[in-house]
């Protein structure tokens, strides 16, 4: 009995060590996993502004699936910049240059969740996120179709308990 | 006598199990170290002839190119003068990067649990099967090339490589990327 217990303990230790490895070495970092966010829905329709001088604008939209919708998030260079549920969009500004985008929250962990973007000042980038296919950049004309029918949201970080 | 024999057997099996555990933990740590993201060193040997591989995915980055190409049928050609990507599909992504403009090459090996292996293991072998299944991992290989645009501003490209071609592609890239001055290829 004691031998069985020892073997099970060893298997547990090995599985814990292997699990610790899983999240390591991604080419693009998401935001902090323990950060909790609250989605805020401003009243009325939100027009998408132009990027400020010297900045680029990112508009992110989440095309959900039928059923309950969970929070999904978009991180830029390791910091969450947008938190959404299905059929919502948000926007934020970024500095020009190479930006590393990561799609996180309640989505399957896969490499489609990574996207590199060479941002140029004054440009607007439309990013579409889905549950199954991660994130990709859309043509502005196509992106505007989503912002026309989706709800604009923003978010705040919940203080840790 | 029987009690002392069974105690001895238990102690021995316990030691064997402990040893297996130590070896497994050691192997895991070794793998972890070996997979750590590393800035690739530049090989100064003569540049090789152009080579083409399929099984390469494009995960964005190239200035002026919209979207990604997650099809393994894409091809990547590396020569001494340029790195050429040719996507597939209705609107294939294509781009070329001058080898001389490349500033850095980063490799990342992302180890993750195989989809469904834990649940398959559970169905086949119960708890022990699930434990073994969850330890079945595969590694995704990524190459990130940083390069300079004609105006000198930075850009980059993220590629996912296949387990069967990643070593050869990385070796070829290392061979063709040449140092071009301070701060360039690391």
What's the arrangement of secondary structure elements?
The complex is a heterodimer of chains A (161) and B (186).
Chain A: H1 2-22, E1 37-40, E2 56-63, E3 72-76, E4 79-84, E5 88-94, E6 97-105, E7 114-119, E8 124-130, E9 134-138, H2 140-149, E10 151-152, E11 154-157
Parallel strand pairs in A: 2-8, 5-10
Antiparallel strand pairs in A: 1-11, 2-5, 3-4, 3-6, 6-7, 8-9
Chain B: H1 2-35, E1 38-39, E2 51-53, E3 56-58, E4 75-78, E5 82-86, E6 94-98, E7 102-113, H2 117-134, E8 137-148, E9 154-161, H3 166-176
Oligomeric state of the chains in view: heterodimer
The ordered string of helix (H) and strand (E) elements of chain A is HEEEEEEEEEHEE
**Which secondary-structure class do the elements of chain A indicate?**
alpha+beta
Low-confidence stretches of chain B: 32-40, 181-186
The residue ranges of chain A in which pLDDT falls below 50 over 5 or more consecutive positions are 10-24
CATH topology of the largest domain in chain B: PH-domain like
Kindly name the structural category of chain B: alpha+beta
Overall CATH class of chain A = Mainly Beta
The major pleated sheet of chain A works out as: 5 strands, mixed
> Can you give the helix content of chain B as a percent range?
25-40%
* Number of β-strand runs of chain A: 11
């Amino acid at each position: 009995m004691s031998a069985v217990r020892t073997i099970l303990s060893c298997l547990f230790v090995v599985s814990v060590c292997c699990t610790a490895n899983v999240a390591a070495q991604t080419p693009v970092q998401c935001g902090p996993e323990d950060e909790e966010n609250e989605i805020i829905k401003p009243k009325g329709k939100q027009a998408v502004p132009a990027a400020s001088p010297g900045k680029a604008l990112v508009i992110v939209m989440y095309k959900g699936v039928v059923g309950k919708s969970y929070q999904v998030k978009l991180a830029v260079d390791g910091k969450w910049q947008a938190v959404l549920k299905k059929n919502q969009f948000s926007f934020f500004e970024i500095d020009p240059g190479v930006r590393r985008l990561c799609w996180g929250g309640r989505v399957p962990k896969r490499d489609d969740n990574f996207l590199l973007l060479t941002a140029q000042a004054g440009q607007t980038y439309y990013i579409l996120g889905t549950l199954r296919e991660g994130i990709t950049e859309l043509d502005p004309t196509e992106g505007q179709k989503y912002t026309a029918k989706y709800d604009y949201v923003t978010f705040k970080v919940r203080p840790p308990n | 006598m029987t009690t002392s024999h069974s105690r001895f057997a238990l102690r021995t099996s316990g030691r064997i199990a402990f040893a297996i555990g130590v070896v497994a933990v050691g192997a895991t740590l070794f793998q972890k170290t070996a997979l750590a993201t590393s800035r690739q060193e530049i090989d100064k040997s003569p540049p090789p002839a152009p080579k083409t591989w399929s099984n390469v995915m494009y995960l964005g980055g190239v200035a002026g190119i919209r979207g990604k190409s997650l099809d393994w049928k894409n091809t990547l050609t590396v020569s001494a003068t340029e790195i050429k990507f040719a996507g597939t599909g209705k609107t294939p992504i294509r781009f070329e990067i001058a080898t001389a403009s490349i500033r850095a090459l980063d490799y990342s090996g992302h180890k993750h649990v195989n989809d469904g292996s834990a649940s398959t293991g559970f169905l086949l072998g119960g708890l022990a099967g699930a434990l073994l299944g969850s330890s079945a991992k595969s590694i995704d290989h990524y190459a990130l090339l940083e390069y300079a645009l004609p105006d000198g501003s930075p850009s980059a490209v993220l590629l996912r490589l296949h387990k069967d071609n990643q070593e050869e592609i990385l070796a070829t890239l290392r061979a063709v990327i040449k140092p071009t001055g301070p701060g360039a290829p690391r």
